[in-house]
Design a protein that fits this description.
The protein has 333 residues and is of the alpha/beta class. Helices cover 44% and strands 16% of the residues. The protein has a 7-stranded mixed β-sheet, sandwiched between helices. Strands 1-2 form a two-stranded antiparallel sheet.
Length: 333
């Protein structure tokens, strides 16, 4: 679980502490973060200290009242739960003498009558003040695919890319298993590649991927050639890969199913040998099942593909669980 107390971590003054926590509420709300990862302790202490519901009003202004919530609203289910958590704290404050907050109950009335659609937008804020907004499903697996949500390895790969934009600047990139598109969109927005090809196989994922790429303004860029392409790992040929012409390949959370490992390694072998100058290949994985990941690395070795682990600190930008076992590797021919 990802939880951070900005005041303790940074030892900042009270005013700055409040600003940091309000920002954290905003970031977690728009990313539909786990409700138990929000800084509720800060809110409870602030309510007790001030005997006022003003801080809840400030949180509402950063979240449900933010203009982004109108343009890119999180799922109805998430918004209802979030308002419910605020109401719990407000009721405790009211019992201690704080004035009831009409704004909070107005927010509840707005979400109660909405129809649940099984998904919503998630927005991830960038260091430059911009944001990436994606339409995602709520269920981790839906329509027979895991590609309609953003996974942790994509967030980590995006953060590493922002720390190392020189790896991607001016280069032609291919992303394998792009899914909802977070990692690729962040690279396009912050690392200045010359060309970027998002790829996936599932028809529903490709449709959603095209929507998210357009949603973030990439199809309107004149300085960047962006495409979304179907790439079936079981059918792709070396000729197709040569036509793609990528000099850098990235992938996140593609090593999760032992049944696809063989196809992935075959694809990587073709990518590395179909060009006179092998591309740089970076693969980021959340190691959920060590046996599956071990099978992947062993099959790389059998195919004559070496790899090295990229260590070192990576600045955390997005609110997610960094306690997971994450591994970023670069393939070496």
């Amino acid at each position: 679980m990802w939880r951070m107390d900005p005041c303790v971590q940074k030892q900042v003054p009270d005013t700055k502490c409040k600003e940091e926590n309000l920002k954290l509420f905003r970031n977690l709300f728009f990313a539909s973060g786990r409700l138990d990862s929000f800084p509720w302790t800060f809110l409870e202490k602030e309510l007790e200290r001030s005997r006022s519901s003003e801080v809840i009003s400030e949180i509402l202004n950063e979240t449900l009242g933010n203009s982004l919530a109108l343009q890119f609203p999180p799922s109805v289910k998430f918004r209802r739960k979030f308002v419910g958590e605020l109401i719990k704290r407000e009721e405790v404050a009211a019992s201690a003498g704080a004035e009831p907050l009409d704004q909070l109950y107005d927010a509840l009335a707005q979400v109660i009558g909405l129809e649940e659609r099984g998904g919503g937008f998630k927005t991830y804020f960038l260091p430059d003040g911009g944001a990436v907004s994606l339409l995602e499903n709520e269920a981790m697996i839906s329509d027979g695919t895991t590609g309609l949500v953003t996974w942790e390895a994509a967030l980590y790969l995006a953060e590493w890319a922002m720390d190392h934009p020189e790896r991607f600047s001016g280069r032609a990139l291919l992303e394998l298993g792009s899914g909802a598109g977070l990692a690729g969109i962040v690279v396009c927005r912050t690392c200045r590649p010359s060309r970027f090809i998002f790829s996936d196989c599932h028809p529903g994922v490709l449709t959603r991927l095209e929507e998210n790429v357009a949603l973030n303004g990439l199809t309107d860029r004149t300085d960047l050639d962006v495409r979304v392409q179907r790439l079936d790992w079981t059918e792709v040929s070396e000729e197709q890969l040569r036509e793609v012409g990528a000099d850098t390949v990235i992938a996140a959370d593609v090593v999760y199913d032992p049944d696809v490992v063989e196809h992935l390694v075959r694809l990587l072998s073709m990518i590395l040998r179909c060009s006179s100058v092998p591309p740089q290949v970076f693969i980021c994985s959340t190691v959920r099942n060590p046996d599956t990941y071990g099978r992947f690395t062993r099959q790389l070795e059998t195919a004559g593909i070496r790899h090295h682990v990229i260590d070192g600190p990576v600045n955390q930008v997005f609110p997610y669980n960094r306690n997971s076992s994450m591994q970023l590797i670069q393939l070496v021919t």
